[in-house]
Specification:
The complex is a heterodimer of chains A (130) and B (96). Chain A is 36% helix and 21% strand. Chain A has 130 residues and is an alpha/beta fold. In chain A, helix 2 links the parallel strand 2 and strand 3. Chain A starts with a strand and ends with a strand. In chain A, 42% of the residues are buried. By secondary structure, chain B is of the alpha/beta class. Chain B has one domain: Hypothetical Protein Ychn, Chain: A (3-Layer(aba) Sandwich). In chain B, helix 2 links the parallel strand 3 and strand 4. The longest helix of chain B is centred in the last third of the chain and has 10 residues. The relative contact order of chain B is 0.26. Classes of the chains: A alpha/beta (130), B alpha/beta (96). Chains A and B meet through helix 1 and strand 5 of A and helix 3 and strand 5 of B. Chain B: Pfam families: DsrH. Chain B: InterPro entries: DsrEFH-like (IPR027396), Sulphur_relay_TusB/DsrH (IPR007215).
Chain lengths: 130, 96
């Protein structure tokens, strides 16, 4: 089956990110196709490339990136939710005159329309809230 | 059949009431994260009306030291069981 995950909880504040990651790994292990993870509301903080948690703790940002590389999962970040929280990729940083950027591939800034598209295109959409 | 997922304990949140109100006669409910507290004998009464259709996530019970402490009416599933429930359900609705 084709799955998508909607993640709305901030990493390290709520269990949502860990729950979503565990569910995502179980999905691909069972042979399902996980098309995308859509990061929305405080969930966009999962895309911060500057995250540097202690080495003996799970690194959520890297874990999402690994999942994307190993299983072709698209990591889509709501651009409106991201910009207002200081999460900008290179292009948006330039556009807003900011030094540096905090979002990099495989995460990509996209619009809410992509979430609607996932909802209609995938067989299942599972939400993890804060 | 819809799968409802609740991540709040009935001791701290009344969102379970909204989930129960929204549930159809064939729907099932899975407790995850702090929601697994609702599977304990002293709290499971809140879910009395869906007896036999209540599940709790094994990993989240274990993380809280609650494995083996669930009410007998609750079906414990691991994350693979969670996936299976989403396969079987037409849609999944999360309450938080």
């Amino acid at each position: 089956m084709r799955y998508a995950i909607l993640l709305m909880g901030a990493p390290y504040s709520h269990q949502a990110s860990h729950s979503a990651l565990r569910f995502a790994r179980a999905l691909v292990a069972r042979g399902h196709c996980l098309e995308a993870v859509f990061f929305y509301h405080d969930g966009v903080h999962n895309a911060s490339r500057l995250a540097a948690p202690p080495q003996d703790e799970p690194h959520l940002v890297d874990a999402w990136a690994d999942l994307s590389r190993e299983h072709g999962v698209s990591l889509q970040v709501c651009i409106a939710a991201a910009l207002r929280r200081g999460l900008l990729d290179e292009r948006e940083a330039a556009r807003h005159g900011k030094e540096g950027n905090s979002v990099a591939a495989p995460f990509e800034l996209t619009g809410l329309g992509q979430l609607i598209d996932l909802g209609t295109r995938c067989d299942r959409l599972v939400t993890f809230g804060p | 059949m819809l799968l409802h997922v609740v991540n709040r304990s009935p001791a701290n949140s009344r969102v379970f009431e909204q989930a129960l109100t929204a549930m159809g006669p064939d729907d099932v409910l899975l407790l995850i994260e702090d929601g697994v507290q609702g599977a304990l004998p002293q709290l499971v009464r809140y879910y009395a009306q869906i007896e036999g259709r209540l599940f709790a996530l094994r990993e989240d019970l274990g993380a809280r030291g609650l494995l083996g402490r669930c009410a007998e009416s609750v079906q414990v599933v691991d994350v693979d069981g969670f996936v299976t429930l989403t396969e079987e359900a037409e849609r999944t609705v999360s309450w938080y």
